[in-house]
Task: inverse folding
């Protein structure tokens, strides 16, 4: 971790390197000695330069930064909008934020707003005013994640500002740890000011606990135990429900404090009992919060089993023959299973009850020609968890609304089935084309819902289908407003990535966006062409010619109206577009239903997966117990095309020239099993099968193979809940009631939102096993599935924990102690709601620092000074002479004419001398080998030689010789004789000098 060291105007990332500056005195001492040959001025100049070089190098190693300060202030307001905060307190908190801007300096300060409940979201980015009229609706109001709000707020701060967070809350958190987050903020120097949203409920009744035995035998009477706390005596009605059916009701009087109540209940049904107890006071003034007046519990009935057949039709509905036919098909299959002595068969219409709450009562679920849009995403995920994690069985029976033709492509259910709902073989299959026109920006989280519905529609399409996505963009006219041009879906990941980047604009004109989509659909070779428009339909309508062209070319268009409650929706326009093109209009007031609508509409382009041709199923040679004793089968008149997965068993196929299509496929996935039968519709496709003598035998064997096996009675599961935390305790005993030890126990916890958590149990005593703690704050049912492995094999059991309401509704007053500690840990303040201007007070805030890295500049300076150091040591400069030369040069520059005249006079003198020189005498030319020397007298030669050997004298001064006449050339003999005489004389002189010594 880099350490910051404060020095005026400087900061250092690694200040430890500054210790090297202690070597400067040694550098000076050694430099004085090593540079002793220089003059004093040059020596000290070199030493100073060296010290600066070393200092620059050390500062660069230390990561030097220049620092400037600003007094700008940035404040993030974190507003708690969870259910524990009364609505009037939330309104007062927003008024505090709005009024605080009066103390804001527009040119220096800024504010941002973060809202927090179970999740944190940015309501407004930094600005110098409050742009919102109010905070948006909460996302997860049953929880308070104050730590997440502080973390998000800290991530928003701009640079070069003094930072502060103002938290407006009651201090009641139940997700995360705000004090842990406070320690992180204190380390980064961000103070947290708190504005307590104080409240106190003095008239309150809280249903603290409803206790029921986790398991019971059929016809057994159990005791329900209840704990209800009242702040003062109150009278009211206590009602008890089983699966929302009233089973008991009585008037009771509660005393102040905890009250323990009991009721006896007869277990007269083989299904699980889900109890709900509710207390309603006679005088509503004695109770402030109604949401915390109920408790929930569940009892598992040991006599387990049963088959649930889910259909999309309604019993006895004659107005829609298709619905009547679908229900009749499901009922026919149920009666067939009853003939095979399979008990507990029930038929239920999809949507009649939440599937995720009822499927665990059964050992097997059959989807009889049910389209995907009839089940919510939550129910589809619950089916996947039911099979993979809880060991249940699932059978999907085909029809014109099943598999890929029913919009199941890409769903959670497809992942657990033994067949892929797309066609992998290379065969000619008519494709469909779908164009999506997105305009959802004006609803809350419009881009989020736009992304969700587009992805849901794309997942239902085959890889061969065409898809295109259009959305209004102010600069998008040149590309036709295409987010994804109409083209093959492919592997879907590229299209989904484009959708995730989509930013929908506020569309002014429907025609401008719909027309490019229609033109692209006209060019497509798809058999089925469909468009879906999602909008509030306040843009200008599409042209009449465009709608006529769509109808003439069989391009249907369905419209989805959104934005109800926010502004007026032009339903007439939306309905007119759908009616003129053969589509449907949907008025959506619950946004959670949007994905199902798009899944349903995208089925239109998937009808090509249905193949209605007569064929005889062929039994493969591979062994499969579900076909024991069955060798030949009658014809079927249709099926839905699928592709078998690599690890699946496919004992029954339809053989064609293009390949083999699965008719019956099965496999084990996770702890459970699933079966795909791609035909069905017994009154249309299976008329021969409905009268076939082996029909009930075949289906009896399929159901018995797929159904969940019975559970062991040797394990007693209890769930303990305290303070939003839960723990599972298992008591294991054998058939003689002796404790079972050394059993490897693992559990799967399924939360109310269908998320799965693995739990490993630890033995804490003879036959006693305990799981780690887990969060149990969300209201709903927690299902625990136990897998116990011992020498006897693997045995299974399960239990259910029910949480009636969020811990938000347990709080009766603000947690002011937590808020005081939060402010103290971060160096913040506790503010009053009456003092909003204090949010922008300078007190307690350090000045903002603006840092700039300068170590690169220091390196450049070091290199420059190093060259100067070398120059000072290598180049000798006489300051006086340098000054004189400079003065002379300046003078010459100041008198350019005098210098020119002097130069001209000198050239004239040289020319005169040259003209007066006598002509050169001629003589005999020396030989080519002779050396030329200027004529000299013997005395001159001796004197020059003496000077060469003895050194120059102090009187020797350089002189300028006058021009002389050149000596006459001499013969070679005279030249040699003179040289010999000079050598002899020099030798004699040296000898005389030696004698004198």
Result:
């Amino acid at each position: 971790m880099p350490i910051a060291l404060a020095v005026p105007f400087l900061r250092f990332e690694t200040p430890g390197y500054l210790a090297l500056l202690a070597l400067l005195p040694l550098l000076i001492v050694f430099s004085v000695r090593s540079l002793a040959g220089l003059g004093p001025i040059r020596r000290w100049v070199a030493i100073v330069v060296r010290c600066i070089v070393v200092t620059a190098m050390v500062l660069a190693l230390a990561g030097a930064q220049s620092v400037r300060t600003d007094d700008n202030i940035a404040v993030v307001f974190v507003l708690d909008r969870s259910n524990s905060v009364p609505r009037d307190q939330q309104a007062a908190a927003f008024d505090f934020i709005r009024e605080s801007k009066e103390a804001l300096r527009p040119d220096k300060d800024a504010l941002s707003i973060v809202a927090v409940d179970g999740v944190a979201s940015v309501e407004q980015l930094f600005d110098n005013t409050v742009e919102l009229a109010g905070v948006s609706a909460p996302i997860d109001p049953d929880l308070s994640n104050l730590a997440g709000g502080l973390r998000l707020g800290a991530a928003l701060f701009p640079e070069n500002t003094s930072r502060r967070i103002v938290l407006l809350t009651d201090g009641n958190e139940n997700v995360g740890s705000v004090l842990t987050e406070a320690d992180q903020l204190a380390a980064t120097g961000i103070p947290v000011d708190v504005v307590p949203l104080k409240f106190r409920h003095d008239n309150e009744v809280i249903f603290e606990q409803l206790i029921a035995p986790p398991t019971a035998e059929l016809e057994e009477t159990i005791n329900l135990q209840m704990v209800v706390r009242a702040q003062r005596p109150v009278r009211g009605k206590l009602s008890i429900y089983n699966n929302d059916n009233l089973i008991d009701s009585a008037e009771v009087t509660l005393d102040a404090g905890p009250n323990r109540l009991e009721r006896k209940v007869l277990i007269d049904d083989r299904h699980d009992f889900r109890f709900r107890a509710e207390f309603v006071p006679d005088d509503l003034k004695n109770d402030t919060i109604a949401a915390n007046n109920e408790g929930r519990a569940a009892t598992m009935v040991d006599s387990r089993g049963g088959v649930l057949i889910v259909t999309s039709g309604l019993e006895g509905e004659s107005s829609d023959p298709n619905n009547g036919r679908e229900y009749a098909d499901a009922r026919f299959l149920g009666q067939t299973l009853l003939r095979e002595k399979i008990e507990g068969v029930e038929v239920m219409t999809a949507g009649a009850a939440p599937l995720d709450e009822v499927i665990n009562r059964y050992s097997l679920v059959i989807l009889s020609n049910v389209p995907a849009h009839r089940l919510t995403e939550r129910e589809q995920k619950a089916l996947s968890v039911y099979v993979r994690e809880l060991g249940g069985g699932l059978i999907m029976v085909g029809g014109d609304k099943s598999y890929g033709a029913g919009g199941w492509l890409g769903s959670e259910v497809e992942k657990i089935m033994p067949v892929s709902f797309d066609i992998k073989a290379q065969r000619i299959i008519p494709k469909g084309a779908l164009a999506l026109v997105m305009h959802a920006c004006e609803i809350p989280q419009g881009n989020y819902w736009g992304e969700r519905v587009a992805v849901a529609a794309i997942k239902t399409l085959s890889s061969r289908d065409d898809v295109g996505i259009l959305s209004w963009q102010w600069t998008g006219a040149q590309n036709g407003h295409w987010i994804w041009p109409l083209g093959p879906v492919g592997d879907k990941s590229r299209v989904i990535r484009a959708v995730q980047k989509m930013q929908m604009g506020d569309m002014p004109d429907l025609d401008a966006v719909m027309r490019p989509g229609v033109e692209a659909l006209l060019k497509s070779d798809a058999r089925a062409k469909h468009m879906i428009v999602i909008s509030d339909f306040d843009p200008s309508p599409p042209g009449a010619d465009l709608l006529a062209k769509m109808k003439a070319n069989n391009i249907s268009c369905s419209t989805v109206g959104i934005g109800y409650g926010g502004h007026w929706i032009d339903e007439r326009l939306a309905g007119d577009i759908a009616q003129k093109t053969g589509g449907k209009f949907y008025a959506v007031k619950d946004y959670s239903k949007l994905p199902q609508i798009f899944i349903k509409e995208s089925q239109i382009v998937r009808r090509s997966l249905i193949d209605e041709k007569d064929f005889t199923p062929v039994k493969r040679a591979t062994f499969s117990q579900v076909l024991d004793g069955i060798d030949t089968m009658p014809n079927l008149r249709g099926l839905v095309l699928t592709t078998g997965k690599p690890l699946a068993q496919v004992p029954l196929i339809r053989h064609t020239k293009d390949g083999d299509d699965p008719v019956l496929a099965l496999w084990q996935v996770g702890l459970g099993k699933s079966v795909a039968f791609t035909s069905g519709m017994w009154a249309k496709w299976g008329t021969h099968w409905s009268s076939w003598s082996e029909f009930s035998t075949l289906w009896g064997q399929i159901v018995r193979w797929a159904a969940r096996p019975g559970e062991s009675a040797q394990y007693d599961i209890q769930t303990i809940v305290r303070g939003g935390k839960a723990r599972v305790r298992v008591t294991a005993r054998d058939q003689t009631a002796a404790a079972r030890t050394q059993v490897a126990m693992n559990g799967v916890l399924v939360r109310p939102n269908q998320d799965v958590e693995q739990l490993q149990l630890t033995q804490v005593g003879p036959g006693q096993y305990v799981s780690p703690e887990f969060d149990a704050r969300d209201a709903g049912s927690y299902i625990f599935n136990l897998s116990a492995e011992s020498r006897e094999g693997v045995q299974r059991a399960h239990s259910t924990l029910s949480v009636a309401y969020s811990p938000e509704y347990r709080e009766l007053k603000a947690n002011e102690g937590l808020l005081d500690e939060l402010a103290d840990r971060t160096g913040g303040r506790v503010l009053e709601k009456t003092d909003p201007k204090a949010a922008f007070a300078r007190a307690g805030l350090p000045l903002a620092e603006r840092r700039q890295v300068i170590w690169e500049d220091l390196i450049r300076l070091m290199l420059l000074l190093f060259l100067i150091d070398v120059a000072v040591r290598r180049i000798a400069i006489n300051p006086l002479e340098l000054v004189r030369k400079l003065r002379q040069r300046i003078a010459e520059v100041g008198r350019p004419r005098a210098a020119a005249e002097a130069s001209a006079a000198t050239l004239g003198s040289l020319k005169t001398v040259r003209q007066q020189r006598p002509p050169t005498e001629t003589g005999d030319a020396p030989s080519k080998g002779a050396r030329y020397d200027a004529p000299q007298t013997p005395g001159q030669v001796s004197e020059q030689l003496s000077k060469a050997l003895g050194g120059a004298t102090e009187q020797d001064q350089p002189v300028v010789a006058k021009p002389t006449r050149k000596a006459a050339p001499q013969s070679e003999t005279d030249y040699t004789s003179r040289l010999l005489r000079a050598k002899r004389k020099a030798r004699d002189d040296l000898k005389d000098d030696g004698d004198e010594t």
